[in-house]
Write a structure and sequence with these properties.
heterodimer; A: alpha/beta; Rossmann fold; seven-stranded mixed beta sheet; five-stranded parallel beta sheet; 13 helices; B: alpha+beta; Immunoglobulin-like; four-stranded antiparallel beta sheet; 3 helices; about 20% helix
């Protein structure tokens, strides 16, 4: 009897101790890791040199999405990794990067590029391989709606999508704010002769005139130029009350500095290509009062983006997430969710590589989820259905949102 | 060792720290336990239970807490506007048009809406009959906006991507926001502008607050 009591008492205490010990170690790990498949998501953007501030924001936006997918086991049995290639903002380099992605069997889709002109050279390569390509930043309307987009929309490639809205809206939104918001009536319009910059400047030019404004003059610059003294003289002599620039921050940050340095105190207004912290850092006080439109609403008004921003900062990633980081995250997430949809529909197995790629294209087309930048879905052209825009203005050395807008074409 | 205290006298020759308590036949813990009066045993058991519970509270991982309530969304991120068409009116003046919209709020608390302009200085816009209205989450409210031409000078008669400027307010923020509509609204607005400005010289009127200088005001 005594022995029996002793056994019971000791068993109770021992079991309790073992239970506490077991509960204290939660990190048991997944035994199925060894049998998982790893798929690669390609990233193409300028990662060095011109435009790399925003390009790196795209790369690390995708990296955080992939890390989240792996950590949270978004697709059971499938792990993801990224392969980032630098296109140096050059169409030919972008094209060879696209060829590299499509030639690597484990690449299931790609995010990028940054530049619309680079995208033009990549679209056909991805289409031939039936591989999905989602740009978080291309805004030229022709990429999704064809070269005659203004009169007759036709989708050129079913493999191309974007999470950024188009310059058709961005240019008109900027023109409205310049004319009705800033009360500017005489604009000088400059572009960098690139697909994105020339297209955006042209749309602004047309929209500003339709509103009743006049164009004091137009001119072009070359990417990589650093001396804009002759341009500054033309603008000064034109009597313009606003300079609109279609292009990237690399040139506009120098133009505004030289413009203000010459005593021409008119604001420089541009598109998402110059919405970067680098613009303010380089231009300094000359940037005060300058403006830029960008796609989407300010990231700090999106609760879901807060964790993304915190992670980006905590990791110490280079580049600027502000313009496209959240859209790159959502683009990568669309590919990852498409992989899951394909796997689920295929008896919980991944199809063979080529079949997987083409089915992922179809699944991305059906995307419908709440991303960190808002709702993620695509229309019949591959354009995002999230058509929000924001005007930012430099105030006290930082970009500040001054107006937001939403397009509803119905 | 079980680690529950000395079970042998400290001077026992057998105390080498290697044997097991279980199965021992010398007077040990159980003998002492049964020698205790019932009241003392109950007190000891109660103390032991308290100790186990206390240890569990310290060592066990915390129970998953209910997720905190999601933050209140910014009103512009949950409010949708859709152009429905021209309102049926019989006696509107040539300088005034009535436009119907459907307003939906997808999440968060109710959103109070006020129409403040139609982008151009020569136009005034307001919701009628009440200039301000509230839309609750999940509901779609159909409203009528009266747009009047007050000054034809500087107005583009063929409106393209026409805007409606509003303020949106919920418990999170007040935002000035533009809703931009497609060809149907632009076409109907252009008809009003042509009707007002092709045949009449509209009188100058009060300037709408327009879209300038809008800011997001964080209330939280």
């Amino acid at each position: 009897m005594r022995q029996r009591s002793l056994v019971i008492l000791t068993s109770v205490l021992t079991t309790g101790a073992l239970t506490l010990t077991a509960c204290g170690s939660r990190d048991s790990g997944s035994k199925s890791d060894s049998s998982s498949t790893t798929l690669t998501i390609g990233v193409d953007a300028p990662l060095s040199g011109e435009n790399s501030t925003t390009g790196l924001g795209i790369q690390y936006g995708v990296q955080i999405a992939v890390d989240d997918a792996n950590k949270n086991n978004w697709v059971p049995g499938v792990k993801f990794k990224i392969k980032a290639l630098d296109d140096k903002a050059q169409p030919a380099t972008g094209q060879s990067n696209a060829t590299a992605f499509t030639g690597q069997k484990d690449v299931v889709g790609a995010v990028g590029p940054l530049n619309s002109g680079v995208a033009q050279s990549m679209q056909q390569v991805f289409a031939s391989a039936n591989m999905v390509e989602i740009s978080p930043s291309n805004t030229n309307p022709a990429l999704t709606q064809g070269k005659d987009w203004a009169t007759s929309k036709t989708r050129p490639y079913k493999t191309y999508f974007r999470t950024a809205t188009t310059d058709a809206l961005q240019g008109a939104f900027a023109a409205d704010y310049a004319y009705n918001g800033l009360k500017k009536k005489k604009a000088f319009v400059v572009d960098d002769k690139q697909t994105y910059g020339a297209g955006l400047a042209g749309i602004f030019n047309s929209a500003f005139k339709k509103l009743g404004g006049s164009i004091a003059g137009t001119d072009h610059v070359n990417t990589g130029d650093t001396d804009f003294s002759s341009l500054v003289t033309k603008i000064k002599n034109s009597g313009a009350d606003l300079l609109y620039y279609g292009g990237q921050y690399d040139e506009s940050e120098k133009i505004t500095k030289q413009l203000k340095g010459a005593g021409v105190k008119i604001p420089l207004f541009g598109g998402d290509g110059m919405f970067a912290t680098t613009y303010i850092q380089t231009a300094g006080k000359a940037a005060e009062g300058d403006l830029a439109t960008s796609v989407g609403v300010p990231a700090d008004t999106l609760p879901a983006a807060k964790q993304f921003i915190a992670t980006y900062k905590a990791k110490g990633y280079k580049g600027d997430y502000g313009a496209y980081g959240a859209y790159a995250y959502d683009a990568a997430t669309a590919i990852i969710k498409a992989v899951k949809a394909v796997k689920d529909a295929n008896g919980d197995k991944l199809p063979a590589s080529n079949d997987l790629r083409s089915k992922v294209v179809d699944a991305v087309q059906k995307s419908d989820f709440e991303g960190i930048s808002g709702k993620v879905a695509f229309d019949e052209y591959g354009d995002t259905t999230n058509k929000q825009l924001t005007v930012y203005q430099v105030a006290n050395g930082a970009w500040k949102a001054v107006k937001t807008g939403t397009f509803n074409g119905s | 060792m079980s680690g529950i205290g000395p079970v042998e006298s400290v001077d026992s020759p057998e105390l080498d720290g290697s044997y097991d308590v279980i199965g021992g036949d010398a007077p040990r813990l159980t003998d002492r336990w049964h020698a205790l009066p019932p009241r003392a045993r109950r007190a000891a058991l109660a103390a032991g239970a308290v100790a186990v519970v206390a240890a569990g509270a310290v060592l066990l991982p915390p129970h998953p807490r209910a997720d905190p309530a999601p933050p209140v969304p910014w009103p512009a991120n949950v409010t949708e506007w859709r152009y429905v068409g021209l309102a049926q009116t019989t006696d509107s003046p040539t300088t005034t048009g009535y436009f119907r919209f459907a307003v939906t709020v997808d999440g968060g608390p109710p959103v109070a809406v006020r129409v403040i302009g139609a982008a151009f200085d020569g136009l005034t816009a307001q919701a009628v009959p009440e200039p301000s209205f509230t839309v609750r989450v999940g509901a779609t409210r159909r409203i009528t906006v009266q747009i009047s031409v007050s000054d034809c000078s500087g107005l583009p008669l063929n409106a393209d991507l026409a805007f409606l400027d509003v303020t949106l307010r919920n418990t999170r923020a007040i935002q000035h926001h533009s809703f931009i509509f497609g060809s149907n609204y632009s076409k109907d607005l252009s008809q009003l502008l042509h009707r007002a400005c092709d045949t009449t010289k509209a009188r100058p009127g009060p300037r709408p607050s327009g879209s300038a200088g809008s800011q997001n005001v964080d209330l939280s």
